[in-house]
Amino acid sequence: MNFFTPVKPAKPAFQIRYETKMVSIGSCFSENIGKAFQKYKFDILINPFGQQYNPISIGNAVQRICDLKAYQDEELIYHHELFHSFDHHSDFSRPGRSETIDLINCNLIEAHQRLKTADMVFLTFGTAHVFSSLDSGKIVSNCHKLPAASFSKRMLEVSEIVDCLQQAIARIKQLNPEIKVVITVSPVRYFAFGIEENTLSKSLLFVAIHQLLQVYPDLYYFPAYEIVMDELRDYRFFSEDMLHPNHQATRYVWEHLKQTLIEHSTCKTMEEVEEIIRAAHHKPRNPSSEAHKSFKIKYLEKISRLELNFPEMNFKLERKQLE
Question: Which domain, by its residues, includes 268?
Answer without folding.
Answer: 264-323
